[in-house]
Amino acid sequence: MRSVPLWHTMLGAMGKSNPSRRLLLASLAAGFSHPALSQPQAPQAYVPKQSDRPEPIAGDEDGFKSIFDGKTLDGWQGDPVYWRVSDGVMTGEITPETVIKSNTFIIWQGGAPEDFELKVEYRIAAAGNSGINYRSVVVPDKVTPSNRFAMRGYQCDIDGKNRYTGNNYEEKGRLFLAQRGDVAHVTGVRKPVVVSRLGDNGELARFITDGWNSVHLIVRGNLLMHSINGQLMSAVVDDDPNRPRKGQIGVQVHVGPPMRVEYRNWRIKQF
């Protein structure tokens, strides 16, 4: 028995005199007559001209998606004693009553990215100390065994006094991989070495404001780049054979005095 196409069955159900039937028939006929029309069109290739130069981009490139809804902590896990959300802002806070003895994180549950770009905005109190961890894993906390949110891995360091902001620091691992202003090479058999300079550490700190700041992390293979407010702060070429290749993303509240840090507009693009 000859099979009847699904769209014939759909049309029959709609009735021969239904105007919507005639419109649907025309649309289907066009699609079946010209299969290429129903396929997504590949973007047109860019053809460079001698006069072209790289230019700033307005907003995000295609492919970024939000990982924070601004209303809840859905998709994230952390100790609610220290983390909350309101008015589009994820806040980590330590009060005099909740001082901690070891660092704790709130961790994105959406995967363990390998190659990606991450964008987020932060604001931190003068006494604050935080950081954005990536390619990280949850580890036992020997100091505070009840802390289920300790992490080891790469970190874009952030602090309110801007002594460390922009550094690449491997939490509970190889520690300082690059300071602000460094292009560093890591091998695993010696201290990291500075192979080039992006600028003076103190001068680069002037790009960081007391208000909201924009972080852009570019993580591809063994290249790790930390930018703040459009300025590259540090870059690491990590040739250590034991380096982490992928892992979770989390943000930290640090041991020390009472503090507050805020994050908003989390976006990620994975490759």
Essential attributes:
271 residues; mainly beta; Jelly Rolls; 2 domains; five-stranded antiparallel sheet; 38% strand; globular
Describe what you observe in this structure.
The chain has 271 residues and is mostly beta strands. The protein is built from three helices and 17 strands. The chain has two domains: 33 residues; 205 residues, Jelly Rolls. The strands form three sheets. Strands 1, 3, 4, 6, 11, 12, 13, 14, 15 and 17 form a ten-stranded mixed sheet that branches. A five-stranded antiparallel sheet has the order 2-5-16-7-8, with no helix packed on it. The chain has a two-stranded antiparallel ribbon with strand order 9-10. About 7% of the residues have low confidence.
Question: How would you summarize what this structure contains?
Answer:
This protein is mainly β and 271 residues long.
Task: Give the C-level CATH assignment of the largest domain.
Answer: Mainly Beta
For the record, what is the CATH homologous superfamily label of the largest domain? Answer: Exo-inulinase, domain 1
Uncertain parts: 6-16, 27-33
What CATH architecture of the largest domain do you see?
A: Sandwich
Task: Give the termini distance in whole angstroms.
Answer: 48 Å
Count of structural domains:
2
Find the count of extended strands (DSSP E, 2+ residues). 17
Give the topology string: H per helix, E per strand: HHEEEEEEEEEEEEHEEEEE
Residue share in helix: 10-25%
Main sheet properties: 10 strands, mixed
Overall 3D form: globular
Fill in the CATH topology of the largest domain. Answer: Jelly Rolls
The class by helix and strand makeup works out as mainly beta
Radius of gyration, in Å, reads 25 Å
Strand share of the residues?
A: 35-45%
- Mean pLDDT, to the nearest integer, reads 89
SS field, number of helical segments: 3
